[in-house]
Amino acid sequence: MNLESAEFRRILGHWVTGVSIVTAHPAGRAPCGLTANSFCSVSLEPPLVLVCVEGVADTHDCIVAAGAFCVNVLDSEHEVLARRFADQDVAEKFRALAYRTEQTGAPVLEDALAWVDCRVFASYPAGDHTIFVGLVLAGDARGGTPILYYRGGYGRFTP
Questions:
Q1: Does residue 47 register a pLDDT over 90?
Q2: Residue 114: inside a domain, yes or no?
C-alpha cells in the first residue's frame, strides 16, 4: 500500500532543509525561477549538484529550454523572497530584483548567501518531478546565516 501524499508530506516535513531559488533564462524568454529545498551536492570531481523540479512548474520547462540553471542559497533575511518565488505568479518574481548573470545566463541573485551556476549534465524523470544534475561552472559564497524550512514554515539557524 502506498502512503497518502498528505501523510508523506507531513512525515518528510520533519527533515530540516535549506532554502534556495533555482533560476533559468532561456534565450528569447523572460527569466524564471522557483523556491526549492530539494538541492544537494552529488560529486566533487567533476563538481555536480542536483535539483528536483516538479514537471508542471514553469521553471521546469525553462531549465529544459536553457540547458542550464543557477541555485541561489537564501539567507535568514530572505523569507519574503522565498515566499515570492514559491508563488505561481511568474511575471512578478523578478520585478525590482537585483541579479546578474555568470557563465550560463541564469540569474544569480545579488543577495544570495551562496550560488552555483550550472549547465545541465543529466536529467532523470522521477515521479512528478525531474532530477536535474548540473555541472557547476561557477559559484561563490559569502558570510551570513541560512534560512531553513521545517514542517511547512521558515526558521533561522545561527551556528
A1: yes
A2: yes
Domain count of the fold of the chain:
1
pTM: 0.92
> For the residues 32-45, what does the mean pLDDT come to?
94
**Structure confidence at residue 13 (pLDDT):** 80
Domain that holds residue 134: 18-139
Within a domain: 53 = yes
Residue 153 falls inside a structural domain: no
- Does 48 fall in a domain? yes
If DSSP states are collapsed to H, E and C, what string results for the chain?
CCCCHHHHHHHHCCCCEECEEEEECCCCCCCEEEEECCEEEEECCCCEEEEEEECCCHHHHHHHHHCEEEEEECECCCHHHHHHHHCCCHHHCCCCCCEEECCCCCEEECCCCEEEEEEEEEEEEECCEEEEEEEEEEEEECCCCEEEEECCEEEECCC
